[in-house]
Design brief:
By secondary structure, the chain is an alpha/beta fold. The protein has helices at residues 21-32, 49-58, 73-87, 110-120, 122-132, 147-150, 158-178, 206-214, 225-236; strands at residues 12-15, 36-41, 63-67, 92-95, 140-144, 184-190, 247-250. α2 links the parallel β2 (36-41) and β3. α1 crosses α9 (225-236). The longest helix has 21 residues, at 158-178.
Length: 260
């Protein structure tokens, strides 16, 4: 059965990278909206998808944890199939799975480049491709980009920035392609958000770096996962029914602040 938001069944959202951070906040937010959630999680993720499921249930929702490696097309196809088998439909797709690795250009091997793009860019394609087959009119998909690549450059992270920039082009093109089917495609561009990924002092800013950066943000602090999740849920909701092919920056004003 193709998804159709016009009937009385509960909507269903597929969220990848949902064991922590923005993905977890999105899954829990959907549950509060009365949306059933497929919690996509990487088997090697150190964070507990069971905690996401517990929070989804506490919010009054129904969830299903599915292990998926977005580098593997067959596994992503299985994710879409499990969602369809369990709930009979997919209405919203959030491609959030991603990795972040520091690598100066001199150390950026072909293997490191390929692996980053396979997760952070091609993983979005695989997720959208697999789930879109069962989307009906009124459905929506959102990919998570980053201000690194989506707006700014970031030293020692060229592969990450390239992938996140590519996400925007992918979303714009799919928005045009899928519009005749009534399916919308958008992206969010998070700024500095306090997540396990950004709190990694080796590959990202770490807690102290986030604190320093927060002082330079017009809003006076770094963002919270829920503040990105709220925008994602808006973009998939009927309230955004005429919004497609867009990239919404969620950064507390960081990217519009004039530098002295």
């Amino acid at each position: 059965m193709a998804a159709n938001q016009g009937d009385d069944a509960r909507p269903v959202a597929v969220v990848t990278g949902a064991a922590s951070g923005i993905g977890r906040a999105t899954a829990v937010g959907y549950a509060t909206d009365g949306v059933d959630v497929v919690i996509g999680t990487f088997p090697g993720d150190p964070h507990d998808p069971g905690e996401t499921l517990r929070q989804v249930k506490a919010a009054g929702g129904t969830g299903l944890v599915v292990e998926v490696d977005v580098r593997d097309s067959a596994r992503v196809d299985e994710l879409a199939t499990r969602a369809q088998d369990e709930f009979g439909r997919i209405d919203y797709v959030v491609a959030n799975a991603g990795v972040l690795r520091r690598a100066p250009l001199a150390d950026l091997t072909d293997a490191a480049w390929d692996d980053m793009l396979s997760v952070d860019l091609t993983g979005v394609l695989r997720t959208f491709r697999s789930c879109s087959a069962v989307l009906g009119e009124g459905a929506a998909m959102v990919a998570v980009s980053s201000i690194a690549g989506g707006v700014y450059g970031w030293e020692d992270h060229a592969h990450y920035a390239a992938a996140k920039a590519g996400v925007l082009g992918l979303c714009r093109s799919l928005a045009v392609e899928l519009a005749p089917r009534g399916v919308r495609v958008n992206a969010v561009i998070p700024g500095l958000i306090e997540t396990p990924q950004s709190s990694d002092p080796v590959n990202s800013l770490g807690p102290e770096g986030l604190d320093r950066a927060g002082a330079d943000i017009p809003w006076g602090r770094v963002g919270r996962p829920e503040e990105v999740a709220d925008v994602i849920r808006f973009l998939t909701s009927p309230a955004a029914r005429y919004v497609t092919g867009q990239a919404i920056v969620v950064d507390g004003g960081l990217t519009v602040k004039m530098r002295a």
